[in-house]
Amino acid sequence: MDFAECTQIDDYRSIVHTExxxxxxxxxxxxxxIAKISSFRDLKNTDVQALLTVNAIHPIFMMKCMxxxxxxxxxxxxxxxxxxxxxxxxAPGMNLYSASKHFxxxxxxxxxxxxxxxxxxxxMLCYEPGGVKTNMTD
Length: 138
Ligand SMILES: NC(=O)c1ccc[n+]([C@@H]2O[C@H](COP(=O)([O-])OP(=O)(O)OC[C@H]3O[C@@H](n4cnc5c(N)ncnc54)[C@H](OP(=O)(O)O)[C@@H]3O)[C@@H](O)[C@H]2O)c1
Prior knowledge:
3 strands; Rossmann fold; single chain
């Protein structure tokens, strides 16, 4: 499924309801991401839309729609988000990518504190890799 096309939280609510609610999901891994090397001015509007939708909106909407299911498990659960080390700098030429990963780390940290407060049964991790040779960087 193309996460760039899922722009409404109800899209996720419906996926979770039909596909995931009957599964015992123990670890929610939110890894999808896209990067474009370009100045902000030269980015196509469609790229701006896709970058923000896949890198920032998708993980937030999915995490929100899965949270009650994860918390209600008898065993321990976890949410794992793939951030990026580049978020530590403003990154000219990759500014939306860097900003979207900074957003991700911030929300993961703050929601992680809240989850710690209400339950010891769920862990939150936003890990931040450095440069790795993958399809994204080819
Ligand atoms: N490579 C690096 O240097 C590096 C560094 C730091 C962080 N990261 C992060 O690591 C994560 C994985 O990236 P990668 O390096 O392994 O690159 P990748 O091989 O291109 O993997 C990107 C993943 O995102 C999925 N994805 C992208 N756009 C999507 C969309 N519109 N709808 C649904 N799924 C979509 C891809 O699914 P498909 O395979 O189905 O296309 C793929 O599973 C990303 O969040 C990236 O930002 C990468």
